[in-house]
Amino acid sequence: MKCSIFRCSIVLTVFAVLATGLTHAATFRGEIGDSSCALNVHSLSRSHKEMLKSKSFGSTAADCARHCVAYQGSSYVLVVKTEVYRLDKQKEAERKLKSGRDKP
Predict the structure, then answer these.
(1) Least packed by Cβ within 10 Å: which of 44, 66, 83, 85?
(2) Angle between helices 61-71 and 90-98 (to 10 degrees)
(3) Given 3-state DSSP classes, what are the helix, strand and coil percentages for the chain, each rounded to the nearest 5?
């Protein structure tokens, strides 16, 4: 019986260590954008360049991102160099874009 309790405690300890490693938070700095532009859905350069040239999506990257989320079915993402991360807090991202603070 002692052996099985010992084994259970080792298994639980290993599980706890692995679980805490998976929930470790990290800080990323980048630009808030939209998934369509950032993932080349309608952009060749993974940016807002093409959309801004057409002038139908606004005059700034933030305008373009808001347009794509509102009318193209996109979601807000964080673009860090070549990496794209979906943001869980979509309303917060929208507020940051409206306030002009698109860079965390």
Answers:
(1) 44
(2) 140
(3) 50, 10, 40
